[in-house]
Write a structure and sequence with these properties.
single chain, 153 residues, alpha+beta, Immunoglobulin-like, 2 domains, 3-stranded antiparallel β-sheet, 2 helices, rod-shaped
């Protein structure tokens, strides 16, 4: 066997290197395009707002009321077609509150919120004096939290 002839025959080296380089360039371009397309995230951020929430009175057996004061940030829409959901929790028990009657809350506005469930029943039945209730305002469209506050009754 002639080893000299084996190492002098390199006719296929150039096409193989060309194919390997083209495959590598294609993979790099696909990765760059994929990361830019799938790395976009949400197109519209949730509204950012600062709310002051105060208990008007402790639960008296009929209804509990809190006042909301919009101190700054974006307006929050509570209309019937809004995407803002209000969740109230005492301990591990959480329920959604019907806030559709508040309209749009702009900076400087105040509103009273009855803590009733979406079916009309009272959302919190154990909020006696001294009880801490957690309020979460959630933007449903982006699934992001707008406000998370604890209020002591």
């Amino acid at each position: 066997m002639n080893f000299r002839h084996l190492f002098e025959n390199n006719k296929a080296v150039s096409p193989v290197i060309g194919v390997v380089l083209m495959v590598a360039i294609t993979v790099i371009l696909a990765a760059a395009i994929g990361s830019s397309v799938f790395g976009e995230g949400t197109s519209e951020p949730a509204p950012q707002a600062h709310l002051n929430i105060k208990a008007v009175s402790p639960y008296d057996g009929s209804s509990a009321v809190v006042t909301l004061e919009h101190l700054g940030g974006d307006p929050i829409n509570f209309d019937s077609n809004s995407t803002t959901k209000v969740m109230v929790a005492i301990g591990t028990t959480s329920t959604e509150v019907n806030a559709t009657g508040l309209g749009i809350l702009n900076v400087g506005d105040t509103a009273s919120l009855n803590l009733n469930n979406t079916d009309g029943t009272t959302a919190i039945t154990s909020a006696t004096s001294g009880t801490t209730v957690n309020f979460k305002f959630i933007d449903v469209a982006t699934s992001q939290l707008i406000v998370d506050k604890d209020v002591r009754f």
